[in-house]
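Can't paste images in this forum, so I'm doing it all in text. The chain is below; anyone willing to post the predicted structure tokens underneath?
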Amino acid sequence: MIEPESRSVRVTKPGQTAADSYDLADSKTDNVIVYPGSRIEFVGGRSASADTKYFITGKRVAAGEKHLSDGLTLMQAATAANPSGAEMKKAVVRRRNGSGILSNLEFDLRSVKSGKIADPVLIAGDIIEIRN
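Text version of the structure:
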């Protein structure tokens, strides 16, 4: 259901693992093309939970349950959980599909950091494993 209070929308195109986020207050969002089979998620309405969570684990990271803010990306979460500043090489994001089954999405964090691949937006319930 689309809430009138929704502040943003996340669009995942077919074949992509990362969603693109758009601010609904920005008039440029009116020109976003949505392809058949895209996953669309409206964020920030009454149904949005103030205590939405994601989980992070791995060596040399501050592991645990974390608060998920709108638009938080994998690189932002990994950086925040890395107090030592150690090099992070890979991340696996475990995300529930439409059937509730966890699927693994693997990311080369060095490629994300250098801008070679998109920095995926996290969603509620994501489980991130940092591999160094």
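The mean pLDDT is 85. The helical segments are 74-80, 109-114.
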